[in-house]
Amino acid sequence: MAGKKFTVILTHEHTDFDGLASMLAAHKLHPHAIPVLPRCLNRNLQEFLALYRSALPFRRQEDLPRRQVDYAIVVDTQTYSTVKGMKPDTPGQIVDHHVQQRTPDQGWTFDGEEVGATTTLLVEKIARRQIEVSPVEATLLLLGIYEDTGSLVYIATTARDLQAAAWLIEQGANLQVVGRFLHHPLTPEQLDLYTALTESNRVYDIAGHSVVVASASAPGFGDEISTLAHKIRDVYEPSGLFLIVDLGDRIQVVARSATDAVDVGSIALKMGGGGHPRAAAALVRGKSLTEVEVTLLSLLQESVKPLVTVEKIMTHGYPATVPPSTTIEEMVGILQRYGFEGYPVVEETSSDENGKRSAHVNGLLGNITRRQVDRAVQHGLATHTVNRYMRTGRVTVTPEAGINELQKLMIESGWGQIPVIDPTSEMIIGIVTRTDLIKLWGEPDKSSRREEIALRMETALPDALLALLRLAGQSANELGFPLYAVGGFARDLLLDRPNFDVDLVVEGDAIALARRLARRHGGRVRSHKRFGTAKWILPESGDESGSADDPDALIVALNHILAPPAALDFVTARTEFYAEPTVLPAVEHGSIKLDLHRRDFTINTLAVSLNPDRWGELLDFYGGERDLNDGLIRVLHTHSFVDDPTRILRAVRFEQRFGFQIEQRTGELIQDSLDLLDRISPARVRHELELILAEALPEQSLARLEELGVISHIHPALTTDSWVVDRFRRFRESRRSSDLDAETDQLYFAIWTYRLPREELTALDKRLTLMRSSMALLENLHDFKAQVQALENENLSRSQAYRLLKPTLAASRFLMRIISDSQVVRWWIDLYEGELMKVKPYLGGEDLMALGLRPGPAFKKILDTARDAWLDGSVTSEAEERALVKALAESQ
Known about the structure:
Blueprint: E1 7-10, H1 17-29, E2 34-35, H2 43-52, E3 71-75, E4 92-96, E5 108-112, H3 118-128, H4 135-149, H5 159-170, H6 175-182, H7 188-200, E6 202-206, E7 209-217, H8 226-236, E8 240-246, E9 251-257, H9 264-270, E10 274-275, E11 279-284, H10 289-303, H11 310-313, E12 315-316, H12 328-338, E13 342-346, E14 350-351, E15 357-358, E16 364-369, H13 370-378, E17 391-392, H14 403-413, E18 417-421, E19 428-433, H15 434-438, H16 446-460, H17 463-479, E20 483-486, H18 488-494, E21 503-506, H19 510-521, E22 524-528, E23 533-537, H20 551-557, E24 567-572, E25 574-577, E26 586-589, H21 592-597, E27 607-609, E28 618-619, H22 624-630, E29 632-633, H23 640-643, H24 647-658, E30 661-662, H25 664-673, H26 682-693, H27 698-708, H28 722-733, H29 744-753, H30 758-768, H31 772-791, H32 798-805, H33 810-819, H34 823-834, H35 845-850, H36 857-872, H37 878-890
Parallel strand pairs: 1-2, 1-3, 3-4, 4-5, 7-8, 21-24, 29-30
Antiparallel strand pairs: 6-7, 8-9, 9-11, 10-11, 12-19, 13-16, 14-15, 16-17, 18-19, 20-21, 20-27, 22-23, 23-24, 25-26, 27-28
Helix pairs in contact: 1-3, 1-4, 3-4, 3-5, 4-5, 4-6, 12-13, 17-19, 17-20, 24-27, 26-29, 31-33, 32-36, 36-37
């Protein structure tokens, strides 16, 4: 494309403003390339060029020089007609905003992303390169974006289209001109056909999508039909639109789509035409209007599938329902417990041996909402039962139903919570709510996202762990259980942070799944039936051989990846509620959605499916990925910190670990809940502090907790100032905690509390119920602190230093080297550990008894004196030591 190569820029026939604008944009990026006008232009484009062509670089095909085309740039289409000078092997590039439909020919490349208009892709590059555009050019480019995005309101519009449009307006695009050519008046001939088409239109509901088909006869019609398609689409706003016009010698089919579920390009291709998934056309000869429409309807039935079905958004499992005998007073408690806005009223028909409930659709009586309960309470009717106030009826939906069908059902029935039934057994198998629908807004295509998440797992996880998760997913599938990797694993996967600690949630029997895996692949299972949890402890072996084709060998290899003994933890999906603030929650079995709802922050509510048919599918009911991208720590509901105030400490820990910010409302809720920290059990507060002190830079979290007023509720004298920050840094630079009888968090805690008066340690222990080893370290370090001044005495002897340092723990000495600024203190500690503590007398108790002494306090005094003599250099041999000991013994 460089130098003197002859390059042309092409687009499709009957081009629209996006095609024309994309040619201009490609020319701005490649000024040597010639944008060639197609032979057929829509009338509004013809009139635009009649006014402004002199300021634009377009050339007609007949005006091209007679020479060979070296390279072609094709925009806004993946099918194109050649121009003179092009050969079958002419190389080129396709730039389009639709999904790539086929592998490019040899020598060709494809450059495209799914945005609202091809112009957007090219304008982004122009803006990045800071290429100047004139007001006329900016206006045409804006027309390209506005026409293909319906002035930025079509469903395919992206934020990138808006950003590109805003940049063009900044460059002087004339919105008045844009409006004039986008709302071009119809010719009398077009107006007549428009009237005929709108009078004949038929609306079909296909797989939950509304498809408008309109047909009319217009022999000899010579104007463009695509303009009519735009106008009729704007009136009816269908998922798909097909105009069938009999022109006399042929039938013209023009199609438009607002959703990937109605791929008009593939349908037009089967009718002998072609185009994009969102815009296509076909010419049909030898058939009548009726025959073409019948063929079209058959193709629609075959091709159109629900893009999203109820099954993909519903909450699986027997839903939160209530029997008709439930009192209004009991309903108040249920509403507080689960937080839903409404509940189906159901006569339960059966329960299995584990107490799991189920009901037939015939048992569905109606629906009771929070509003109805509140009104009954206001009227003093708390003792009445819900069947007196519920909305009666039987509204249900099947898992295969499309979203459009669900929306229509909710609007017509007024139900915001609709039970989902198995069409075969007619048993209620789940529920779908208005909230589930809202979560779909702006949701990306799940199939491509699934591939992305699957690739992330393959890249981030060791082969053995990946194989193990596939095995677990396969076994869960065989049992009919959805299986998910949740929480920190899913969160860190999206953050590209390695995390091999996998928590698995089963919508089913976690214990049964773990036992199935153990039977097949060895190992053993520890389970707790009451909580529905199981740990599959993998088989141990030194055999590291194996490959991806040998799953059992890969499982053995996990003992070298995970902390031994390697294990997988399975939990049955559950929900929980807090009977009172700050107390531990009560737990009940639930769905994956309810299980994720009980978690602390949105970023921890993500889940990745491990079942083979849904491998890599990301579940994000509560906006967790959005908050990951925005770097926010956000609670799920306003009572989160009231239910569990320790989440305040966790919020700060995650905020500082990831470099995020606590979301504004969440920060307000923290301030409102600080007093509740005083009611949390000491052990739970201590545990959260231990987790903070195990972080890479714990001082950041401690300083933030102090800023928020949290630390004063733990101990008002604790602070994280520059002294603490400096000592924590020294600790990391001198770390050898693995050699000490103390954990990293205990060592940090000892530094943090070092400056507290000794009497405050008792109060701190009472507040946190410290581990015995932690308290022993604190007390020993504080005793050592009292001796530091003595170590700095310039007349201190080696034996005196020994006696000062001997009672200290190794961890205390390590910390004092970090804490103290005195080189003398550090020198004595190093001397003690390197030399003094190793000095021992030759003689022992038996030698003293041989000299006639009886065991007693004198033994220790004499041997200590001998050791001191060695330390201070007054004895230098065994003989001298024996003489000293003998003299001391005789003096007793």
